[in-house]
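This entry is listed below:
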Amino acid sequence: MAGTDEEAGAAADDALYVLTAVLLTPAQFPSVLGDDYPEACAALGLAPLADGYGLVLGQDGTGARWTVVVDDVSLVAVAIASWDCGMEYDLSPDERSVVAALPGWPLAVAVAAPGVPAPHDPDPEAGDGPLLSPPDTSTWGPAQRRLGADEIALQWTAWREQLDDDAFAAPDTVGVAARPGEGAVAGSTATGAGASAGGGAPDGAGQRAPEGHGAVRRVLAEARAYVDSPPPLGRVRSSFAPGDARTLRADGPGWSMVARTDDIAFVLLDERPGEVLPVGRGPELPKLLQALDELAVRPS
């Protein structure tokens, strides 16, 4: 019986108590990990497979954090969709679909498994790769900039309502819209400050608007270059939006852009901590957004 008890205890320690899961595919990946799909994969030491992966985050019986990487993307997608609808779903990947068991979590998880010790890092040597930890978002930088863009995409209506068309002095104008709060953009308010494409600033624009205008023009030029030289997978993504529109997300070295194909765009920059710069629609932005949408990857 002693042997049986020991085996049962070992099995309990090895069991994974699933807390959450995310997709890691060209069209859907945790953008906090990188500007594109290959970069996000590299953060986990994974090859950028065309079909992608599912990431299952949980704890073992000792409370240690583990990230189980599986190639059964459909299974993980069904689980996520079920949870989003408030339905229960027992996510239990087949062992044959497991690609790697990575120690730690690459993302912050606010919950813990009941009945086991508090989450803690396991012995790195026990896993299939280096110890994972969430990117540092305590100060402004690429990770927080991408999280800010995520929040704008999720809360588009709230952000758009803070700007009316009068905030743009001329076609394709650029202005400082807001300073996001620490950690997340949601909940910040737009100031309406802006600078025209010709370099003039409307009343109340402030001294920093022309600098922002030049930076955003550089971002738009880099985004246009994607049309002629397609970037790595995931640099440009297209997702659902109301009506016939699409929500576009584009990223590049030091910048992120969120746009609606039937509306304006918002730009965030590493060089301008916490600021969100709106880009007026004008005659050129619609053509750029259409071209980007045509080359973007989309969720299947």
In short: Confidence is low (pLDDT under 50) at residues 1-12, 179-210. The first strand starts at residue 17 and ends at 24. The chain has seven helices and nine strands.
